[in-house]
């Protein structure tokens, strides 16, 4: 892998073995990452062009039909809801909101954890103690009950409220990892040389430190997105979301409310949850694959080598 | 010793933070609790006098005329001394403590057993998977449990219900904690009923919680097995099983133990959903009901209780780490 790139500047390549696009290639070589990325891509497509995946007759997923509580059939692939809406169409059109919640809340939580974690490590001293303490407290506080309390008081149903609450409760785990990583980077030579050059602190953090932490940041984003998907779906399932919105959690809420399982309609009751699960799985697979890429010891070993080793 | 004192300090500080959040969240949010209460109380059909309203609000620690700081101090005092007020939800006027007392044993039994079982099982499977690197178990374990750990709790619950509890001949019941015809007593019939009603919720928690512990334990194991002292033990000819548990496992277990306490918050989150799906009359279901009926005192008490539970677990795990790990003892 390194042979092609190494050619020109042989002596220094030891340190910079990984060529450009190495990360991309590493993802392609990891089966978990490929499966996860394929799933995610599918969901992105569904979210961007839901109309392409739904037969023309059901392009308005909220349209109330005259055949409520139908079993899956040729015209309603996953049956209909209590109001005669097409479950399959709702499922596809719900992808967008669920994915947006995951990505926005995941991004927000990641940014917050980078800011808090890295500044704790760099400011040091009193600020570090304070920020670490804050992180630990948020890490231990039971988030889901806190979210429920917040969502109850803040008025049910508001998408912005849900996203903000998810960000506020989802950053702590990442911040702890960021701090540890930044601490270990703190006294490296390249940072020392930047300091000697007289660069400003903000410049050092943004240009020198953050790029070296990129794989941890990506892994963090995936973890936070996974957490957001599951938590948002749980909240909406309990009826703390907007009951008129189109998202998987809301679909589950209605399915539970109108007794989908009791009425013998497992397709309606289970398919939105399956979608949540699949999106979660895609984030989890990517996350684990990133662990394997950054820590080669965790990669699956080939059987042949394992036999001789044990 | 310093380590323990610091952990105790953390315990107190976090508890204080939880109480402070509890106090300020309702006061910072839009809408006055007084108005919400009036609506809530009159919706039940009962006529509420201003006098009654004020009494309830005072129980709730809310007094518009009083200084916020004084209210806060009074609130802290009543929380610490166990005066948690009365419910203003569906069971109006019942002290919060007695409501919680009724529900607590069910949740402790169900969630406690399921969580500990998941942790023990997960740690064992993870140890074996990490030890037999590249073996049959290790080939299956990571992909399978990455998937199960990403499954939503409520979905697993719904799936189990549709598989076992609904249809022509349901194998297991899907709601409540025991058959409603029975009176609680220590008879075989009653105990069997409780167990039968607990199987599905417990397996839901087990299935979704076990994956995370297996994966972290396996990864810790893999890292630990590369250490020199493991190679040394192998060179000395110590039997494999002893290396697995006594050398590698013991050290790989430490981060998992602190992780256990941390992840307890997630398990409790899941419990709310699981108990809701199964109508299981524990604390999680009560939490949900308190939300629906905007029963603020109950909601606050439950949140405090859950935080306390997590914190006690964190503290216990800290003690355990302190006992198991000489490094934690000397470093202070």
From TrEMBL, chain A:
Its main location: membrane. Coiled coil: none annotated. SUPFAM superfamilies: MetI-like (SSF161098). The chain crosses the membrane at residues 33-53, 99-122, 134-153, 159-176, 203-230, 267-290. It is a multi-pass membrane protein. Keywords: Cell membrane, Membrane, Transmembrane, Transmembrane helix, Transport. Residues 99-287 form the ABC transmembrane type-1 domain. It comes from the Bacteria. It is found in: Cell membrane. Gene3D superfamilies: MetI-like (1.10.3720.10). Belongs to the binding-protein-dependent transport system permease family. This is ABC transmembrane type-1 domain-containing protein. It comes from Kribbella karoonensis.
UniProtKB/TrEMBL annotation, chain B:
Its main location: membrane. This is ABC transporter permease. The keyword Phosphoprotein does not apply. PANTHER family: OLIGOPEPTIDE TRANSPORT SYSTEM PERMEASE PROTEIN. The chain crosses the membrane at residues 7-25, 106-131, 143-166, 194-215, 252-278, 298-324. The lineage of its organism: Bacteria, Bacillati, Actinomycetota, Actinomycetes, Propionibacteriales. Keywords: Membrane, Transmembrane, Transmembrane helix, Transport. InterPro entries: MetI-like (IPR000515), MetI-like_sf (IPR035906). It is found in: Cell membrane; Membrane. It is a multi-pass membrane protein. Residues 104-317 form the ABC transmembrane type-1 domain. Belongs to the binding-protein-dependent transport system permease family. It comes from Kribbella karoonensis. The keyword Nucleus does not apply.
